[in-house]
Structures are given as structure tokens and as C-alpha cells.
Amino acid sequence: MDDFELERYSRHILLPEIDIAGQERLSKAAVLIVGAGGLGSPAAMYLASSGIGKITVCDGDTVDLGNLQRQILYRTDDIGKYKAAAAAAALHAINPLVDVRPAGKRLTESAMQTVIRDHDVVVDASDNFETRFALNTACHAECTPLVSGAAIGFRGQVSVFRLDRDGSPCLQCLYPAKPNDQETGDCSANGVFAPLTGIVGSILAAETIKLLTGFGAGLDERLLLFDAASMTFRCSDLSKDPACPVCSNARRVLTTGA
Predict the structure, then answer these.
(1) What are 79-88's pLDDT values in tens digits?
(2) pTM
(3) 171-to-22, 59, 165, 167, 243 alpha-carbon distances in Å
(4) Domains and CATH numbers, the chain
(5) How far apart are alpha carbons 65 and 74 in whole angstroms?
(6) How far apart are CA 148 and CA 223, in angstroms?
(7) Would you name the residues annotated as active-site residues?
């Protein structure tokens, strides 16, 4: 780490929980962010400014006017541009030391494992359960930690699924069957309180940095729920579902033939 980097990341280095060793781990880490919208924007900005070595931003959408209320990576001039490319440009401007790679197409299920294989942590900032479930399955197959967040209206949630550890629950332990996105809410049909996405996205970044540096008590096997209207947080424990179609022992036996 040269003098420029030492000064740039000095406020992290001054924290004994991170120090130079932790900052160097961040500089060697690779993070995949799926979804460059309301949650992915602040998460990506904090991860880039914190010095993550490689960030891959995956989003197949383009920027529209209605995004600008909460998707803080973009400016009015970005309307019509592909989010992944616009996000990569914005993140490079924040920190040119970071290798930012845009992925402007939606990942197919078969491609997810290949992409995930080159990353240490996956941040799920997507806006639909089809993508969430596919990411969860792929991360479980690749034994890669999944940091997952959601936000709608005034309510948000974050959890960390340690799919690199035996015995840890996965997303489908929390949601055994895929909810209907229209029932659970999505940004296209429901309002979203702009600062809510910043709060949830910042927590996603914080949990990712904690995973990579190994300090603190993360949201492993816990679900954090936040209500911006009442400004309240509550946390509940998550447990592994023995009948989970993704991570149960029965599923492992069927897929491995053991």
C-alpha cells in the first residue's frame, strides 16, 4: 500500500478492527452487486469508496426519470443509458483505484455460477424474487456468502446468508415458496421512501465490509427489519429449514449422490 492509498483509506486504517491488514484484504476482494438501483447505488458507492479491489455491477435496465428520486448513482444526463455502464463510470469517478466491471445483461441461471465463482461476496440488491431465488441457489452451489436486502414503501430488510458455512440457512429457508412480487410489492407499482434505500444500501455495504475484513457481529442467520416511518429496528433469528429445497441435507444427498 503506497502513501496515496494510506492517506485515502486512513480513516479505515485508524480503526483497530480494520487497520492496514483489513484494508489490504478489501483491496484484494471481489464483490458482485446484482441490481444497480435504489439499494445497489449506495451499496456500490460505499464499497468503491472503501477500496474494494474489484466490483462487478450487474443490471440490464436503463436509467429513467423515475429512478432519480432514489438511485443516487445517476444524474439527469444518464437518462437512457444502461445502468451498469453509467454506474461503472460513476464508481470509477469516486475511486479510480477500483476495478469496476459493468455487466449490462441480466444473468441467466446457468451464467450466475460462473460469474459468482470469481467473487468473494455477492450483494443481492435486485428487485424481484425470481432473481433473488436464482442468486441464492447459485451462491449455495458456489459456497459464496450472500448479503441480501429489500426495500418498499417505508420498510426495509437485510440479512446475511453464510452459504460458505455448513448448517447456515439460505434465502429459501426464509421464503420456502417464491412470493408473488405483486403481493410483496415492487418499485414499479408502489411508492418508495427515497432515504430508505440509502439506509438499507448502506447496511448492505457495511455487512459486506465486515464479512471481508472479519470484524464485528454481522447479520449472519439474522433478519434485520427497519421501518422508516416509525424509525424502528428489530432483529429476529433465522434457522435452517430441514426441508429447504436448496440447502437441506436431503437436497445435498440428492445432488451429490452421497
Answers:
(1) 999 999 999 9
(2) 0.93
(3) 28, 21, 14, 13, 13
(4) 3-256 (3.40.50.720)
(5) 10
(6) 10
(7) 187
